Amino acid sequence: MILVYLEHHAGELEKGGLGVLSKAASLGEAAGVVLGPGAREVAARAGAFGASKAYALEDEALAAPLPQPRVDALAALVAETGADTVLFAASVLAADVAAGLAARLEAGLNWDLTDLELRDGELLGKRPALGDTVLVDVGWKGTPRIGLVRSGALDPVEADGTADVEDFAASFSDFSTLATLVEQTQEESSGPSIEEADVIVAGGRGLGTPEAFSLLEELASALGGAVAATRAVVDSGWYPYATQVGQTGTTVSPRLYVACGISGAIQHKVGMQGSGTIVAINKDPNAPIFDFCDLGVVGDLHQIVPKLTELVRAHRGS
Amino acid sequence: MKIAVCVKQVPDATVHKKIDPQTKRLDRSGEAALNATDLNAVEEALRVKEAQGGEVVLVSLGPERAVDSLRKALAMGADRAVLVADEGAAGSDLLATSRALASALERESADLVLFGQASSDGDGAVLWAAVAERLRLPVISQVATLTVDAGSVTGKRQTEHGYDLISAPLPAVVAVSDAINEPRYPSLKGIMGAKTKPQETLALGDLGIAADDSGEAGSRTTVLELGPPPSRGDSIKIEDDGSAAQKILDYVLERRLL
Questions:
Q1: ipTM
Q2: Neighboring chain A residues of B173 at a CB cutoff of 8 Å
């Protein structure tokens, strides 16, 4: 049986986990696992995405988004059910849970999977590697197998079905509960959403200063688009969280994505690779973004962007 | 305060990385460098040391020639380096790597163990959680702001829903994000001094790790096959000669994107 770890937020199961669950159900018997207060109620929804069963554990130790108590819970469930595979959709939290569980169970972990399949009855994963320049088939030696699926790689498929929710128990290791959540700040997006924009002009560290975002705002305004940012610059306080594109941010797919001073780290890439056309401007000719853009320009964005804004304005005016 | 920083030598960013079709492992024969985001962890360790006193120890797993890369972090100001270099460790997956690294760290019993954001070659960004599990220590990852005092560590990190502030007693394992700081450049004095700083090279046997528990034998994942990636189609790369803005506009107009 395949166990799929399902995260939930504000009373809903997260899409990423449901995508993995739908895939798992297509490969064999799959069950969902939901942890933390409120788990029981949302766990039943897993049935609509192929789970034959859903396991829930509502311990207060699982209230905060911390990985180590979750390792305890999943290790207990693997022991109880004899599950041979545990799958996760990548998230800030899930990655640490998966790796901790791998070490706990001495189980193989394959990460950044974009697909899973059975070949001659054996489970294997598809993993793009080296900046997605090669696609690797990866396997596991022995069980349990642990897999971490790239954010957004698999879409949930809703079907008819219900899952019985079963409670399970776990005891927590002394070291697992040492880390504590002190404070949580929720960030709700406001203003025009980058999710709906047809054109996005995005900026990263290569802008050099927060002030340089004004260049992007002018270009976006000329193009009739929105401005987005990478995690690095949002974390540095240059631009608001609501504009962040990437794994911990919004996934966007505009018709045109203009990446300015963005190196193209995997965290950013997974949030924008579905864009129709990607134009990248970066002064570093080795930046990974040049491996997955349509038009790559090696040059100084501080020169090119204002010129482009003028040209777009002139074109639109004509 | 004793701070251990886990660092890794990776192929240099200018090297076109490729996988050896025979061994199905990354070809590590070309130019190499210290993994870029590990420098953020080194920088953060140095700042903690500067504020509180103590020692910064680099701990690494890799081929013998990785000492060249470790020297850069020593030049930044780290005090000494421990490299686990053993032919038998080649081809280690997360499980085998975390086993060897945890053993080397156990020997140091540092108050704080730091990791960088991700390696540019493996790109797993999960090693710290496996190492923390083996060391039975609390872990905080993706930390963008770090506060360390005598007995505890507090980190602010970004998640899918906002920011979490997480605290843990020391000893603890912390992985920092690349937004946490701007790594310093080594000074000339630092570069000269790095040559005489203590560097220790260990074999797996020194850590009590059996051959069966390392390398491919100690791994639980396999690489079966290599194939071409899903293509985005033909991409064009140009260098700006003053006309790039016009070329971008032409490109966009040609595709009727305006």
A1: 0.90
A2: none
Residues of A in contact with B167 (CB under 8 A): 179-180, 182
Q: Using the beta-carbon criterion (under 8 Å), do B224 and A298 form an inter-chain contact?
A: no
Cross-chain CB nearest to A179 (options B140, B161, B257) = B140
Higher-pLDDT residue of B175, B124: B175
Cα(A46)–Cα(A55) distance, integer angstroms: 10
Half-sphere exposure of residue A112: CA atoms within 13 angstroms, side-chain side: 21
Q: Fold match between A2-177 and A199-317? A: yes
Superfamily of domain A2-177: HUPs (3.40.50.620)
Domain count, chain B: 1
Q: Is residue B193 one of the residues assigned to a domain?
A: yes
Contact B139 A293 (CB under 8 A): no
Q: What is the CATH number of the domain that holds B58?
A: 3.40.50.620
- Predicted TM-score (pTM) of this structure: 0.86
- Comparing A121-135, A184-198, B150-164, which segment has the lowest mean pLDDT? A184-198
Pairing verdict, β B221-227 and A134-140:
antiparallel
Q: B37: pLDDT confidence band, cut at 50, 70 and 90? A: very high
CATH superfamily, domain at A199-317:
TPP-binding domain (3.40.50.1220)
The span from the CA of B222 to the CA of B91, in Å, is 10
What span, in angstroms and rounded, lies between the C-alpha atoms of B143 and A227? 25
Residue B162 and residue A187 in contact, taking contact as beta carbons nearer than 8 Å: yes
